[in-house]
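Task: sequence design from structure.
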């Protein structure tokens, strides 16, 4: 059976530029998985409750990516972009360990080289690319 990767956008803040980026991604066919406040997305479901913060966040992208690793395995592509902290890094590593292909934004094109740096340092990033080449990098893996 052949699976086509499903583009996913997860929004952690709804700034004007973030909302514009999300809308552009949705118009291109992405699916927006946004957890409700104080919840995580486990195994494709939005679990509501007072769950513990993971990597300092609730919702946490690590939780989402761990779910993707469990459900999609090698049929996924994980991408980590500019941002502070280390949320996403361990989840991206779980995806890579499950056979997913992974991309990290390179330092030169990041506004804040925090999350991609941590992900790269722990071995979660298969290839680093400048932001303007990430889309082509994803397409090359499909």
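Answer:
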């Amino acid at each position: 059976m052949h699976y086509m990767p499903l583009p996913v956008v997860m929004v952690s803040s709804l700034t004007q530029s973030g909302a514009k980026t999300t809308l552009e991604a949705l118009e291109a066919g992405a699916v927006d998985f946004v957890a409700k406040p104080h919840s995580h997305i486990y195994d494709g479901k939005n679990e509501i409750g007072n769950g513990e913060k993971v990597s300092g966040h609730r919702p946490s992208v690590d939780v989402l990516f761990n779910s993707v690793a469990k459900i999609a395995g090698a049929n996924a592509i994980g991408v980590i972009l500019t941002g502070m902290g280390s949320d996403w890094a361990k989840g991206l590593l779980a995806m890579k360990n499950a056979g997913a292909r992974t991309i990290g934004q390179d330092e030169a094109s990041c506004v804040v080289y925090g999350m991609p740096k941590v992900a790269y340092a722990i071995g979660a990033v298969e290839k680093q690319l400048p932001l303007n080449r990430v889309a082509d990098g994803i397409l090359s893996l499909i």
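Strands lie at 8-9, 31-32, 39-42, 45-48, 77-80, 101-105, 127-129.
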